[in-house]
């Protein structure tokens, strides 16, 4: 018992020994596992990685690494092949000749090179009875006129071209009419374009045919048929584009990338209710057809010069993963499926998604089957450090390469220069205050100009530790070769602004100092702003303060992003709203400024309806000549600057913070590494090739 | 000189001197206590020092490592950390003293009305409430109260006082009960004294005699509680050791002394108060107290 | 026996309900009356999903409480048996050698350590780790993804130590006081006269007689230990129930406060229940 007692009494000492053992063991722990990856310190959990929504910051960087666009841009801003390897366009003109002989003669003229007299040569000519089909490379705007004009009128058939459109099943409609029609003998040729359009070539006296057809269509309204008299015409023109996709490309899960994926993406994102409404960008497409696993044929209704920009915008979705969405009918299910996809995305980019970390970060692994060569850095780790101290330790130990800095870190680096360096990405977002032109007093141009003049932007704009802000120089991408002159915005002139307002009848009230019109109504409006965006709130407060200096009362209204997006913007229920738009790389800006987009749910938030602006936007869309495009852009910028449908605040771009001397660039096919640099193409082009510098042992 | 009766004043003075001599050990401890108090509360109290001024980052921080002039180093604005620690500890001590005193008074107020009841189970409800209340630890109660109420001493002091009262009440009930079991109480009953006279004349003085010991033991505990709450940020924007350590953590890599020395200072002061408190309570035979918070 | 067990369980349940109601009342008083919050404890809007700040990934309340409970259980597994072991063994030793005032001597280092603010100790450990081991020191800085998670036990030990110190000091002195009081009873004199020695009287008589009083000390320090965890877990950034209370209070998340506080109260309740069952058997 004596010994038992003393063992019992000595047990607490054993606890102490155990504690000492634990201390020694923990002291010998080594941190491992961080040297196998390029580590990026983030400050918040990574959310959904969606290919649809343009993201900024780290999530945008990760999305660019995971997803691959169909087309890329070079340093001059011109589109170059990527997943779409090549594209060819053809114009197919179908001519109805007067007779078989006339068709034969016309064919001979084409083959002899007499028609057309100059310009494109046909790549194929084919005859079937009295119908001649001629194919040309490309889409010339005057091609039809030259071809038809080059043939003697006697060879051409005399037809009235009638166009019938319906929501669907137009062939059934026409055939059932023809089955019972008395005048069908006059209908020479019927040509169906897809399921919705039909061309009828009517010979001779066409009035009775047209009337009979009209009566028939009126009595069968189920498919909403419409009848248009195109005119005396003997030809139809089909414009098509052939897209050839890159071969040997696979998704991150090993499934081959095929034209079905492109077709699925197009169909999914252009239908009504799509999460990314691209229908307006693809309204030139009549139909899309998969010809082979690597070829698509696109039948075009028209041929805007900005066709390829639309393909650039289309995110490619894995049809084999997302076909469930196509089958699900409930909205809730669809949202869940997109969310599930966003949490574990599958793409075609140089890095594939590996896993989500417990700290809210993600890990990416190099995609070995990436066309052009897998990235040299095998793993990317986006992780959170729970304290500044652990982040600084990792920085000193060389286990951390990129940082999303916060204020304390920035202050620390200011006191300890030399440990980090920064790089600037190209500007990606443009921030504006959009005026609602349908509401007083913002419907008056002098008031809007006064609002612009009353602001000193240089005192408001400032760089944060992650983003730089520069004044807006253009409606288009900075450095675009098509932009010859900058956007000339009103200069800061508070006195000039006050004079303008006085002229418009807004005088200062003696007591309050704020301006009122002749009827005593104050010059005031509310500025809606995204409550979750602290920088927008800061800008809004600063603007309101400066406007109050010239006697304008502005109420800043912070709203949740959801409320802004679903309730205020679609119905244009605001006086003024601060928004960010991604700076487009292309030149088609109809969705932002055209009057056609000013309806409910449209992208023209200000409601600008101006014939000159509309004309310039239409010209930009269709004009192939770069010189004329440059001129149209300059005119558009002058028009927008003059009308001031919005206040242009700034362009912003990302500032990346790196550990000094940590990384270099090693592009595939290049033997020697090069120092880091971000060119005009932006971070997305160079980021996949960044590698940690290997420190050679002495 | 024969049969000369000493004056009444001289007699009283002699009695007082004898009493003081009997309590000499306690008096020495109380003097030490007061010296410690005095040292903490001495010095320049000018200005209401806010933690933001001391720890808010500036372009060029003026902190310095500990040296001969500044034993604990300096804060971000260059203020001597030793003096700041003293000031902060004075705050903690003030809060603790007020809270514990209030708690003891509250406990007495809760138990006194029940003391004159002759029933066996006169203290039953206090013991039941206290027994149930101890299930939710006092620190959690303080965190919810101070954190949810927006922080500040207007919540911390009453909260601590109530916790002290809740913990002390069953103890006071036990002392009152034990006090009525003594031989002299039996004799007093035999002599025909009323319950009221017995309680006020005999039992209450013995209980009250122990209270300074309770006070001395509980003050360091309350100081630790106040420092913990200030560390969590629930005592408002005033200087306290907890706040100094919490804010000093932000500069752990560059200026670790800002988080280390205030804690060391607080440890030494709490240890001094604890030691004195144990000696006082031993001298006054307070007995062991249940653990608080 | 079974009946007594059910009785105790019912009492424990009743106490738990009372504590739950008291917690709700406390939250209402603190947040609404004193803090000007608009959310009452009975309004639905106050109870929602787990805030992002409490869990980086999407966790339910159940998942969050489970994870935090596991972490706190690790600490309590270290603290409570240690306090009981140290308290009873050295309390008995101190009472046995009472003439040398050994109880006070044995309790002194723990009592001295209990004077160290627990949150400062946690910061000190982290500072040591940063400067001496060149490694992040707080509990949430490092996550072991592969291999045995000894680091988790290290973090739990750091949190356990301050809580253990105060509890051990109190337990040693309380156990020693009970046994010393027992050895001053009149029956001891009788055994001396009968020829028994000090050792026989102490181990053979005093300890068995004081068993029920000793058993009543089993759960006394648990509430103070659990209360101390709240601060030390927050200071060491240890993801346990204690830090959940503090984080939930900061965020104003009523479900977090309730669940964490009631979980911790449940621990104390279980300790009290076990003590009552053991005491009743004595």
Question: Can you characterise this structure?
Answer:
The complex is a heterotrimer of chains A (698), B (293) and C (282). In chain A, 32% of the residues lie in helices and 25% in strands. Chain A has 698 residues and is α+β, with helices and mostly antiparallel strands. In chain A, the strands form six sheets. In chain A, strands 1, 14, 15, 16, 17, 18, 19, 22, 23, 24 and 25 form an eleven-stranded mixed β-sheet that branches. A six-stranded antiparallel β-sheet of chain A has the order 5-6-4-11-13-12. A four-stranded antiparallel β-sheet of chain A has the order 8-9-7-10, covered by helices on one side. In chain A, helix 7 runs parallel beside helix 9. The relative contact order of chain A is 0.11. In chain B, helix 6 runs antiparallel to helix 7. The longest helix of chain B is centred in the last third of the chain and has 38 residues. Chain C has a single domain, classed as Orthogonal Bundle (MetI-like fold), CATH 1.10.3720.10. Chain C is 76% helix and 0% strand. Chain C is built from eleven helices and no strands. The radius of gyration of chain C is 22 Å and the shape is globular. The mean pLDDT of chain C is 87. Chains in contact: A-B, A-C, B-C. Chains B and C meet through helix 6, helix 9, helix 10 and helix 11 of B and helix 1, helix 4, helix 5, helix 9 and helix 10 of C.
Radius of gyration of chain A, whole Å: 32 Å
CATH class value of chain C: Mainly Alpha
Number of helical stretches of at least 4 residues of chain A: 20
The largest chain-to-chain contact, stated as pair and per-chain residue counts, equals:
B-C, 50 and 59 residues
Unreliable residue stretches of chain C: none
Mean pLDDT of chain A: 87
State the secondary-structure class of chain C: mainly alpha
Q: How large is the radius of gyration of chain C?
A: 22 Å
The portion of residues assigned to helices of chain A is 25-40%
CATH homolog superfamily of chain C: MetI-like
Choose one word for the global shape of chain C.
globular
Q: What structural class do helix, strand and pairing data of chain A support?
A: alpha+beta
